[in-house]
């Protein structure tokens, strides 16, 4: 009768390859954590179902540049927005866009007094606009990113 060593081969496998499985698990967790934190640093919430959405935004030499897209059935006009940094004690920052933004088109808005920051901050964003015969429409949202107000 021949004896098999199933228990011993399993232990040899764990001691030989166990360190590698542990290493891969730790590195995978670190990479996921880094990627997860980077994707959450810049986001816009609350404007998803409105006639105006924020396609992209980022810091430029003159402030915060935002690309607004019209998703209304008519062109949008008289677009004005205000930003207010949460927990800063600073006032509102205002900016306006092109006179009109046709359906499906974009317009870039430059918002002064916003600069790059090493920490992630949240801003309340409020956009007023007209669409077709409707005037004084209002949407609110939150802008999150690594920027802050440079002057109050």
Q: Could you name the key traits of this structure?
A:
alpha+beta, six-stranded antiparallel β-sheet, 152 residues, single chain, Immunoglobulin-like, three-stranded antiparallel β-sheet, elongated
Give a verbal description of the structure.
β4 and β5 form a beta hairpin. 24% of the residues lie in helices and 50% in strands. The radius of gyration is 25 Å and the shape is elongated. The longest helix has 36 residues. It folds into two domains: 41 residues; 108 residues, Immunoglobulin-like. The strands form two sheets. Strands 1, 4, 5, 6, 8 and 9 form a six-stranded antiparallel beta sheet that branches. Strands 2-3-7 form a three-stranded antiparallel beta sheet, with no helix packed on it. It is an alpha+beta fold and 152 residues long.
